[in-house]
Amino acid sequence: MSKHAAIESENVAAERTTRAAEVVDRLTRWHDDFPTPGVRFADLTPVFADAEGFRAVVDCLAACAPDADLVAGVDARGFLLGAGVAASLGTGVLAVRKAGKLPPPVISREYSLEYGTAALEIPADGLDLTGRRVLLLDDVLATGGTLAAAAELFKQAGAEVAAAAVVLELGFLGGRARQGDYPLTSIVQL
Length: 190
Fold this sequence. Notes:
Elements: H1 3-27, E1 29-32, E2 40-43, H2 45-49, H3 51-62, E3 70-74, H4 77-89, E4 92-98, E5 106-113, E6 116-123, E7 133-141, H5 145-156, E8 160-169, E9 184-189
Parallel strand pairs: 3-4, 3-7, 7-8, 8-9
Antiparallel strand pairs: 1-2, 4-6, 5-6
């Protein structure tokens, strides 16, 4: 790629991110003390329900790993993102489920949330993830446990996390520090 083409590509990516960030800022609904007291919940439902907003977010996230051969969305809003990005990239999509939602055998990983603990699972058989390049998506990066646990699931299954991306990052909670050495993109950082 020529220097001119590289700069043009960077400009397109910056414009895409700016457009997505504007929509996320405008349409996100905030709820204090949900799901528990002291937690401020970012409801991205209006972003995803808006055709322009959803397209802007999908385009921005798809650009994070255009060479991925599988997109993984974390339960539950990550499913929406994963499906949209996978369709855009022409790849498959895999749902990373909360514990107990998949029949055994599964690969499972426990993690801590800002308001408790949980576990994530992916199928242990029925699909071969060995060597697959995965784009890992979630809606919000808070304390980082969910995304880190999902990345560990794929590593355990023999896949490579090519990149991870979120719509909204709550930087003051330090979740980025818990992530691996994969590139991590957030559309909006608070």
